[in-house]
Specification:
Mean pLDDT: 76
Largest sheet: 4 strands, mixed
Structural class: alpha+beta
Distance between the termini: 50 Å
Strand content: 25-35%
Number of strands: 8
Oligomer: single chain
Shape: elongated
Number of domains: 2
Strand order of the largest sheet: 3-4-5-6
Order of helices and strands: HEEHEEHEEEE
Helix content: 25-40%
Radius of gyration: 20 Å
Length: 126
């Protein structure tokens, strides 16, 4: 991307103007620097703006079908939705994304995630 294109994009962002990133101390985890300093600076910046950031619990797939965005979580028998996934799925629904669960035993169905319930050796829905 050329400098002129970058400046044009930055001017369109409005309130989220580019500012110097706050100083963030990196920590070493198993020989690697973590978290990524640039990502941490973004998190601090977004939180100052009042944003809620979710990173864990993303569905396995985002499916674009007939003009709709559909999130699909693939679950094998006996596995349910985690709390982190439920929080993410609620946020996606609030943004207008439909969220479903797919299980091989009911391969023909996309089950709405709120109705999905893992049962013993098989998955069912309420």
């Amino acid at each position: 991307m050329k400098r002129a294109q970058i400046l044009k994009l930055c001017s369109q962002v409005g309130d989220l103007q580019i500012r110097p990133a706050p100083r963030v101390r990196a920590t070493r985890v198993r020989g690697r620097v973590g978290p990524n300093i640039t990502e941490r600076a973004f998190v601090l910046h977004a939180e100052r703006k009042g944003a809620t950031l979710l990173r864990a619990g993303w569905p396995d797939y985002l499916m674009l079908h007939q003009g709709q965005t559909i999130a699909v979580e693939v679950k094998r028998d006996g596995y349910g939705i985690s709390r982190r996934q439920a929080r993410m799925f609620e946020a996606l629904e609030a943004a207008g994304v439909s969220v479903y669960v797919w299980n091989p035993r009911r391969a023909a169905l996309l089950i709405p995630w709120r109705k999905y319930k893992a049962v013993g050796c098989g998955a069912s829905y309420i």
